[in-house]
């Protein structure tokens, strides 16, 4: 809440900048001069206060909590904008270096999510409208192995591969991932830059995927989003706050195969799909609905009338064919094994076309959270790879898997259970 964000956002800004930049900051300080620094800080405080007074209180000052048992950005309705950044650790980053880097990420994240600038923030005015900002940190296999190979969860030891994969190097792997999401794209951009600046001594960006949903305020909360095929996408998903959610995401539904440091955390997969929209354009509405087994207008199963109606997989047409085809996406992805369930959190992307023959490079950034990637997600992806009509109009071009450590208390940092547990 706005009232919880106290103090001047840039209160330590200049001293931390001096710490991070060393000589450069000393030079800048020399220009500003002794009293000059206090003057500059007062100017920043004024600017920030002015900006905050202009904020539209409906959404601008909404905050999510960084500290807690679980990390933020998972058990919630997804925000309108999200950027995922996967990073590679520099070769010399060892356990001791991680012990220095991870508290910096947590400190920045806690401040930015609360609407306060990070310590070395050179654009503090950009930090004061968090619009529900969340920052979620995930570890790839390599990061965990640098601490202790024995602590890598079994499902992260080897990346799963599927026959349908047409993976492009640009979208694969990563030692560390940051999921940065908010209802305002400027907030996301500022947060991304702040975090990357602060961990630059340790990491290099490997890939980045920016996605969007409907703009904040354009639809009633709880409305299922649409993807660029026009489909209602996200209907069957565990509800935040429920036991079901806890079982799928936090506790796991099967025998617990995770290492102790991951208690309160979960598993995360990022899969990038190119949507072949020009080919999709050639398909009539009936064919489009058949591909998933749901109606395009309401998102209802083809055997029902409303989005949340239970599908009737036994229903047949007058000619005796199943109404929801065996190869329909929804039918393929509904596993008879209730342990094989995941939390989907998808975003759309659209970029400039790769060639003059196309109108755009569009698709879906499919992400899913589940406690055990191996037993919950992999069987579903295998079914989709084996048979799914939707595959006619998508290319599976990216894949990355991460462990999401638990949250942390104030004074702690995300990753503490791995490094010190
Ligand atoms: C471009 C790729 C994809 C598109 C366009 C897509 C689209 C959809 C749509 C429209 C639905 C029906 C509505 C809903 O329940 O959300 C659906 C359901 C579902 N999808 Fe996907 N999906 C894609 C990829 C995937 C992948 C990679 C997985 C997991 C491996 C997956 C898992 C599911 C599940 C579990 C359901 C719910 C099935 C049920 O009714 O129980 N989807 N998807």
Provide keyphrases for this structure.
421 residues, 13 helices, alpha+beta, disordered N terminus, iron, metal-binding, peroxidase activity, Dyp-type peroxidase, 4-stranded antiparallel sheet, metal ion binding, binds protoporphyrin IX containing FE
Descriptive account of the structure:
- This protein is of the alpha+beta class.
- It has one domain.
- It contains 13 helices and eight strands.
- It has a four-stranded antiparallel beta sheet. A four-stranded antiparallel beta sheet has the order 6-7-5-8.
- The chain is globular, with a radius of gyration of 23 Å.
- The N terminus is likely disordered.
- The structure holds protoporphyrin IX containing FE (HEM).
- Protoporphyrin IX containing FE (HEM) binds next to strand 5, helix 11, strand 7 and helix 12.
- This is Dyp-type peroxidase.
- Belongs to the DyP-type peroxidase family.
- Keywords: Heme, Iron, Metal-binding, Oxidoreductase, Peroxidase, Signal.
- GO terms for molecular function: heme binding; metal ion binding; peroxidase activity.
- It comes from Pseudoclavibacter caeni.
